[in-house]
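Hey, quick one: can you model this chain's 3D structure?
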Amino acid sequence: MSYAVSAALQTAVFDALSADAALAAEVGASVYDAVPAGSVPDIYVQLGSETVRDASDGSGGGAAHALNVS
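Sure thing. Here's the predicted structure for all 70 residues.
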């Protein structure tokens, strides 16, 4: 199992959510990897925790990533 692509996966999900017009209509630019200190908007999207499990098989190594989006 590997967390090697976790940063790239998180960046891709963050970028996809930030670029989604329908989501932007609801939350504006309030998409966060971690909720910032101080005041936060009433409605926002946050990328949460990630779990990774081994998904290797006979053809090679692999990992299945699951993450929470709230």
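One thing worth noting: The mean pLDDT is 89.
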